[in-house]
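Researcher: Structure prediction, please.
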Amino acid sequence: MKEFQYIKDMKYEYNADDGLAYASPVRGVWNIVHIGTLVPGGHQIYVCPTSCLRGVVLTTAEMGRMDKLSTITVGEDNIIEGNMEEQLLHGTERIIEELPERPKMIMVFISCIHHFLAVNYQRIYKILREEYPDIDFIDAYMDPIMRRTAPVVPVLWRQMTRPFKRPESWKKDQVNYLGNCFTYGAEYCDLTALLNKNGIKTLEANNVSSYEEYISMQESEVNFVFHNTGEKAARDLEIRNKTKWLRMHPGYDYDVLEEDLCKAAELVGIEPPSKEWFENERALTDEAVAKTKELLGDTAVAIDYTAVDYPLELTEFMLERGFNVESVFLDAITESEERFEKLKVKKPDLKVYGTIGWNIRQMDRSHEGKIVCVGQKSAYFMNSDNFVNVIENAGMCGFSGIRHLMELIREAYSEEKPMREIVSIKGWGCSCV
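Model: Predicted structure follows.
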C-alpha cells in the first residue's frame, strides 16, 4: 500500500485517521500545556494517571516553566476507594496553600477517568470558588476520548475566556484576537496594521503582560478569529456577553482578503482601505511571488497543514503562478470541496500524504534533487533541510502575510537548516518561556 494517494484518485471525504496511527517525531505544534501557560498569573493543575502526566510534565520541564504546573496523580486506590472527588478537592487546596504566590487563575485539567467514573467535578469547583474567591477557577480538560465532539485545544481556548464578564460599557479603542498561538503583529497582518492606524490596539493571550490586562479583554466589543481553534471561544462570548466577532481568512485569495478587511472595518466602525491601497498591495504581492518563482524555477515544493491553515488553497495559489508543487501533507480535508475538485483537474498527479497513516512510518524519504518544504512535517517526511520553519501561519495574514511567506520560501531555498534538530523542539516559537 502506498503512503500517498494521487489527488485524482481521492474522494473529498478523505480522513487519514482510520485506525492504527503513527506519531512522527515532529514536535513543533503546540499542545494544551503551551497554550495554558500563556495566561499571565495563571497556574495549571493536571489531575491524571501517571502515564498521562508524563507528557505534560516533560513539556513543561522543556519550557523551563515548572513554576506554572502542579499535578495530582490518580491511582488505582482512588478508583477502588471511590474518593476521586475528595482527591480533586483536597489536592487542589494543598497545592494552593503551598504555592509561593497565589495565582489569579487556576486551570484544573481533569482526564478521561473522571468522565468514565462520572465524577461530579463541577461540585468541587463550586466549593473551591467559595473557599478562594480571589482565584478564577477554570474547568479544563485533557480527555482524548472526546477529541471528535470536544477537541481539547478549541475547548481550552474557550475555557480560558470563561472569566470574561459583560462590561458596563465597551472600549472602542481595543479589539481581541482569540485562539492564536502567535501574535498577529502589524508587520505581517493587514488587519492589525489597519486597526493600529486608526488608533485601535489588539489584545490576545500572547501579548498581554498581566492578568489584569488579560481580563480587560472582556471590555472589547469585537473579537477576531483567525483559526478554527478560536471559534468556540468567539461563539461562547457572543452568547454570554453579546460580543461581536468575525472570522478572518488567513488564505491566499486576493478577493477574499479584500472582503475580510472591509467587513472588519465596518464592524469596528472605521474607514476601509482605499481601492488604490488594495491595488498597490496586490501589485507588491504579485512582485514578491514572481521573485520567489524566479528563484525556485522548477524546484519541487511540498506543503503541510501544520504550517498553514489552508494547505490546499496555498497549493492552488502557487500552482496558478507556475510553482512546481509536488505534494501536500494533511490528515483530513477541511477546505471546500470546490477547491479540492479544482486541484484534481489542475494537478491530478498531486501527491497527498497522511502524516498519521501507519504506512508512512517506512516511507522512502529520499528525493531526487532539492525540494522546498513549507512546514516541519513535510520537511521531516521528505528529509529536507530546505524548509519554512513555521506553524499555524505564525502571525501571517493578508497581503503582507503572503509577502512574508514568499520571503521565507526564498530563504528556505537558499539556506539549509538542521531539520532533525529543529523538529525535535517541542512547541515551536513558544513565547511562554
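Model: The first strand starts at residue 4 and ends at 6.
Researcher: Thanks, that helps.
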